[in-house]
Amino acid sequence: MHEDRARSLNSTSARPGPVLYWMDRDMRLKDNWALLHARALAGPSPLLIAYNLVPSFLNGGKRQLAFKRDALKELERDARALGIPFILLVDEKGTNTPKLITACVERYGIGTVVTDFSPLRIQRAWKTEIADTLPCPLIEVDAHNIVPAWVTSPKVEFAAYTIRPKIHTLLPTYCVEFPDLAAPETDMDVPMVDWKLIDARLEGWTDTIRFVPGEKAATEALHTFLNERLPRYGSDRNDALADGQSGLSPYLHYGMLSAQRIALLVVEEVQKPIEMILSKSRNKAKVEEGKTLALIDHAGAFLEELIVRRELSDNFCLYNPAYDSYEGFPDWAKRSFNAHRNDERAYTYSVEQFEKGQTHDPLWNAAQYEMVTSGKMHGYMRMYWAKKILEWTRDPETAMEIAITLNDRYELDGRDPNGYAGIAWSIGGTHDRAWFTRPIFGQVRFMARSGADKKFDTDAYIAKWSPRLL
Ligand SMILES: Cc1cc2nc3c(=O)[nH]c(=O)nc-3n(C[C@H](O)[C@H](O)[C@H](O)COP(=O)(O)OP(=O)(O)OC[C@H]3O[C@@H](n4cnc5c(N)ncnc54)[C@H](O)[C@@H]3O)c2cc1C
Known about the structure:
This protein is an alpha/beta fold and 470 residues long. It is built from 20 helices and 6 strands. The protein folds into 3 domains: 3-144, HUPs (Rossmann fold, 3-Layer(aba) Sandwich), CATH 3.40.50; 145-179 and 213-319, Serine Threonine Protein Phosphatase 5, Tetratricopeptide repeat; 326-464, DNA Cyclobutane Dipyrimidine Photolyase, subunit A, domain 3 (Orthogonal Bundle), CATH 1.10.579. Helix 6 (160-174) crosses helix 12, helix 11 packs antiparallel against helix 12 (282-319) and helix 16 packs across helix 18. The chain binds flavin-adenine dinucleotide. Residues 237, 245-249, 252-253, 305-306, 309-310, 313, 379, 382-383, 386, 407, 411, 413-414, 416, 418-419, 422-423, 425-426 line the site of flavin-adenine dinucleotide.
């Protein structure tokens, strides 16, 4: 592992004992730099994994809890099969994680704690609280980004065009193959997780989502995408009816899949036809060439989202402390909002009306319904959805609050830097430029229904996701 991927969060000296991987953001055993680093530090000592489950983390509900619970059961089974004991810590209110980790360190005589990285406030606060009191080293590893967030940039980036060259320059150093995880032998007596309490909480819970949780399901979803949808990603991703996106965001959000693995496989997909062309005679190769060039375009469009846009969101949350509120918007946007505070709104809705899909706009209601029932709104519709919340609330502060509440309550990929950055982009002009002034929006980019009508059959989308059940 590149040494810059890990950083010490305290200066406590190392002591002998097992190594604990405090798994938080990245719920996977494969392709996980934090786990690999913990393994390397353990040497012949035992290696343990502890996951801190906060049942209502950032206002998530049973949908998110059930998704996590099933994935964690798979993780426990697979970790044990590798010889790594798995511990589940339950932090009811999200305020007890530092104490739970400290107790775990004491109970098992842990020598070093390795944890993964998240730029979100609550997870950073846990680490700050624990760092100085822990009796052993606490090491943070960025297992989520391909280029570690603190290596990419030491400051908040202005937009995709400022972070892109930095990431592109560093990719050859960091986007490399993962070593195998060879777990050390352990005879430690760690009890199996008692799932009864979590199961009881979810008793009778049913959902309409179409995503199967866990690392295995994530890998299957990735291979289906590579085979079936990557070759048309660039042309179909903005068509909300074409099933043209990867559908991987729930897995990426929970870290059930490594973005670096996805990038390595996408590059491999492109290399295969290139090698075929090189090995064929000139005439035959010409036929393949067009297809291959198209595939390169689609792969390029996908990697831009997967790497540049995703890692820009982590940069935003890492360096902008107000990433989830009006205060975090760029100054030009705040200035122009202030000039438009008293603009008349043709419609204003409460959070309950938005939640139930009870606006005057069937397209908006359909998008809301898609999110509530499937757990994932189409990417193009997310922009429209958030911009209309701005248009139909009394001020941008309220719009931001409503969009985050609903996004985090219903999206399987919610409560993620991508969500906070995406909403701040739509409502507050973050990572965007100033446009010409218009009512309510000031200089923030507007989005009209006619734009969606040009991209896809909006009537068919409305028919598909009509909010009849809300
Ligand atoms: C208002 C709004 C809210 C959003 N909320 C979330 C959210 O809660 N969670 C979330 O993961 N994404 C969010 N996004 C970003 C984006 O819409 C989703 O990541 C994408 O639609 C997920 O579907 P996919 O995995 O099929 O995407 P694909 O198009 O297949 O992209 C692959 C991956 O690239 C990343 N990606 C794609 N688009 C973006 C983007 N614009 N910004 C950052 N990363 C991106 C994601 O990790 C995604 O899984 C939001 C965007 C907006 C405008």
